[in-house]
Amino acid sequence: MNTLRPCGCKGVRTCLTCEQDYQIDKPSLQQQLQQLESWSYCAQCERLYAGWDTQAVQAAHPDHNLAESLPLPGILVQEQFITRAEGAQLMSDLDALPWAISQSGRRKQNYGPKTNFKKRRLQLGAFEGFPAATRFVQQRFESVPLLRNFQTIEQCSLEYDPSKGASIDPHVDDCWIWGERVVTVNCLGDAVLTLNLYEEQQANKYNLDLVQQYKAQLLAPLLSPDQLAAYKGKVLRIPMPNLSLIVLYGPARYQFEHAVLREDVDERRVCIAYREFTPMYIDGLDKQQGDVVREKSHLFWSLKAN
To answer: Does 255 lie in the same domain as 113?
Structure first.
């Protein structure tokens, strides 16, 4: 079913509404992943420990045995990145803006240039910057060493509604236009990010072939085949607590697919995803195109001004 449905889903993307309306029998991704060896991330240890339940793994800290853990290069989980009061105000401000339906039971608010990932085409479109009420979040990135010089060129609010079975299927964020650091700020609700090793090795899928052009500039080097073997047959679970900051970079960003399972969304969840340019659009061959977008990305507008 390739047509766009009233719920916003199309192709293999589904929500509970279209699954019921169109009698779509979608296999459970969670059941498939639970056949693998489960490891969960402890944000305090910055290590992975055996187990599917992220809360149980977190609760076991500080009694973890590091000898029984695995590293996960390229992940940052910073709890309490925004305060509870800031989160409440942010949600009030986001809900004052229009939401658009999206796939898999989600809604979104997207601010950024128009992109065509297949044809690798970039257009400024109607991009005029970001909501002023969210400016403090981008400013706070400056306090995180990993995010030094991060310039947001796309900001997307995402709402996950459990009544619609909201989720996002396993994927690697596009590598042609979006840069290394994939940033998420959780504004409302707890959830889990689920990672599994990307093994298809299709050079053009996700535009992964372009990573070779800027591999030497990555903040964390990619893992060798021998190193990646340690993650084969495993599923990795990363807690995403309310008000936290999550950053994927290096191996976690490029060598693993990430997903949000519908079973891990048991209350309304809202997050804001932030993307930066790849080096080609900052100081490479496509810098001129990138400069036009980067100029707009310094702008913040208010509802009154619009």
So the answer is: yes
